[in-house]
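Example with several molecule types.
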Amino acid sequence: MRLSSTLIVALRALRRNKLRSMLTALGIIIGVAAVIAMVSIGNGAKTQVEAQVASLGQNVITVFSGSFTGGAMRGGWGSAPTLNLEDANAISREVAGVVGVSPEVRSRDQVLANGLNWNTQIIGEGPDFVTIRTWPVARGTMFSDQDVRSVAKVAVIGQTIVDQLFPGEDPIGQTLRIRNIPFKVVGVLSPKGFNLFGQDQDDTVIVPYSSHMKRLSKRTNIASILVQAVSSEEIPKVQQDITDALMQRRQGKDQDFTVRNQVELAQAATATSKTMTLLLAAIAGVSLIVGGIGIMNIMLVSVTERTREIGIRLAVGAHGRDVLLQFLIEAVVLSSLGGILGILLGIGTSKFVSALNGWPVLVSTPAVVVAFVFSAAVGVFFGFYPARKAAQLDPIDALRYE
Amino acid sequence: MASVVKLQDIHKIYDSGEVPVHAVRGVSLELAPGEFLALMGASGSGKSTLMNTLGCLDRPTRGTYLLDGTNVSELGRNELADLRNAKLGFVFQGFNLLARTTALENVELPMLYGQHRLSGAAMRQRALACLEVVGLANRADHFPNQLSGGQQQRVAIARALVNQPQVLLADEPTGNLDSKTSVEVMGVFQKLNDQGITIVMVTHELDIARFCKRNLVMRDGRVVSDHVVTDRLLADVELARLREAESAAKLTN
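Resulting structure tokens for the full complex:
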């Protein structure tokens, strides 16, 4: 019987104090929106940064052949002909946790096309190269396993080669000559720029390793093997398994190869991810606290300034429970309305920032839920608690309150 | 006729400070239906405390209080609230209207907390009727800040009337009003009293007390004088006299 009256009373109270209602809801709106926007933008930034780190090539293990020693001179890793294609096949066949293998041979040669020439690095690789190095082909395609088997005269070239040999032209389908052998350009790698050591990574021509070995360098061994592990956690195990598999093939002979990983890169990726996660949590936490304090303030003030109103209501026959229920309904209505508007505003802000920066913005459902529940709980609690105190007041004291 | 209000040896002691304050020391009082009592006394004489007791806002420390046959001293908080709602009407010195709420909605307020739920239309009708009684039916949609002090007090009186109370309690109802408006408000009270409503009001203005039928004077928590007003003033007469004086003042100016 009284619930419907209380509902009327609460809605009337909200309607007649539009400014106060709006301010209260605003606290919740901003709290919720801030958290959602911050977490969404942060998530986007995190994904962006992780993608950038990943583009350096992730979970890559390199197997180098041994050092050639001639007299007193030692040639360094890769100088001795100790690795061959069988080793590469053994790795892809026998080692678990490997998602990509690419045998590698390198040389420097003069490349000709269009009457222009350029001295560059020629690398023989397998088709897995682009995924292992996270280096996608921007135009055209990467050569295939079929090209490797058929020792095809095809090449994928870096942006620098395009600029130097095919200025202002589409290089796809054109021919370039290496040691007077024509290679057809089938793809252009996306520009990668200079690496940390100042080398132009785009200054390169990639051909199938079989073509490189049979047509260019005329060698039977390979310089190194690129291996991609399934995850960074698997790297140590995969590394050990590669060593074991290759040692088994050598049947008790000395180790004539070395296995290296990108420890630094992996560590950087993990550290970056951790930092971003921490940053996000901190931002979300601060937003929640600031929002919560805003809500708390306006709720406390609004209940305190209404002590007299509570006194009047008590004097004309309201029970403490009626007053309490009225404030609870007000708080719930404001909190849910504010929460819903906050969610909309937060998502809108995220989309706006995303459109502005071209970032991928990911609206996180847990953030939406946590922000809404927290703000609503703060709103209801700080609307409820002072109201409870007020409802327990003596009507005389409440009426005298200034 | 059975008395509406019956106080027997009421004591009220406030224990909140270091020294207990004995605000009311043994007051006995009986009010018959249709009485119009002015409760008078200096500050600290205990008249406000007695008024709060009469209004069921506060329970006496000792003594019994029968309101319309109900023993108030034994009731709990919520029962007191229901009693206030059903049997008492309050008019305060500071009007105590809800701000930003129309006169009509202010008058409807006690009905919202009533034991018997009325439909919105019925509440509205009763509220309008009460505003009619105090002569403010045409101001039903005005907000308190759009009304003069006298009009606000009349809205408060309408609010006090809306649940058809046994007793109307007014705590210095003219304290915030000028003398002419005070007389107008007293006119409303006299009209209601003529219709049979029992009224108790606190005042310290002697000429206001003369509009009542009975004066009770308190000092130090005790009743020192309880007499019937012999030279009673009538609001209509006084108002006519004031109007005359006003127009005379304007003429001479």
